[in-house]
Design a protein that fits this description.
Layout (H helix, E strand, L loop, with lengths): L4 E5 L3 H14 L3 E6 L2 H11 L3 E4 L8 H11 L4 E6 L4 H10 L3 E4 L4 H12 L4 E2 L1 H14 L11 H11 L4 H8 L3 H15 L4 H10 L13
Parallel strand pairs: 1-2, 1-3, 3-4, 4-5, 5-6
Helix pairs in contact: 2-3, 3-4, 4-6, 7-10, 8-9, 9-10
């Protein structure tokens, strides 16, 4: 079985080297390439076809959000993780809209980063716990009237509520007394109904439409 492949895109060489050493020493990931600019990240992703691209926001010539947006269109099979020092809510929201599966701050613990990479590789999503509540509050503030859309069933609302709280499939299954396979199937149906591509976008859209409560317990009007 082939090992998962990772591309690191960050304009600080020493930081890239440290990440490579950490990831290859403590996980099964293979770092197949490094990029120091946005355009290098695009060309390396095209040539190397990694499973995950680990992106910084601030890079020369093309920022991480723009890179994510282009990769999401040209190579939707590549999973995108943003690792950055920028904690501004709007950066997070724009990254999620661009197709990023996880958004983590550079001051996170090494073990947290490694856990997030594993979760993203398995098809999950993650936001840094220190910014999750603030981001959802910002989503609420920016939201217009709820979009009726295709209604979620009561069970689907339960699932997407737990999703918005940051739980993985195993935890959701245990909480709702379902199998992980059933949760995965239900999530695919939820994504289709909400018109989204991943878990983070599903949580954001569900909160915007007033389908679930925010992490603070307040439901959109």
């Amino acid at each position: 079985m082939s090992k998962p492949r990772l591309l690191i895109a960050d304009d600080h060489r020493m930081f890239r080297q440290g990440l490579r050493e950490l990831i290859e020493r403590k996980t099964d990931f293979v770092v197949v390439g490094e990029a120091s600019t946005g355009h290098e990240a695009l060309s390396q992703a095209e040539a190397l076809r990694p499973d995950i691209v680990l992106l910084d926001i601030q890079m020369p010539d093309l920022d991480g959000v723009a890179v994510a947006r282009q990769l999401a269109l040209s190579h939707p099979e590549i999973k995108l993780v943003m690792l950055t020092m920028y904690r501004h809510d709007q950066h997070v929201i724009e990254a999620i809209k661009a197709g990023v599966r996880a958004y983590l701050l550079k001051d996170a613990d090494a073990e947290e980063l490694l856990d997030v990479l594993g979760r993203v590789y398995r098809g999950e999503s993650a936001l840094d716990p220190s910014i999750t509540a603030r981001v959802f509050q910002e989503i609420r503030r920016l939201s217009g009237p709820p979009d009726a859309g295709e209604a979620l069933t009561p069970r689907e609302r339960e699932i997407v509520t737990l999703l918005a709280e940051g739980h993985d499939n195993r935890t959701i299954a245990a909480r709702l007394h379902l199998s992980e396979k059933t949760v995965g199937n239900r999530l695919s149906e939820i994504f289709q109904k909400l018109g989204v591509a991943n878990r983070t976008q599903a949580a954001m859209v569900a909160i915007q439409r007033g389908l679930v409560a925010t992490p603070g317990g307040e439901r959109l009007p």
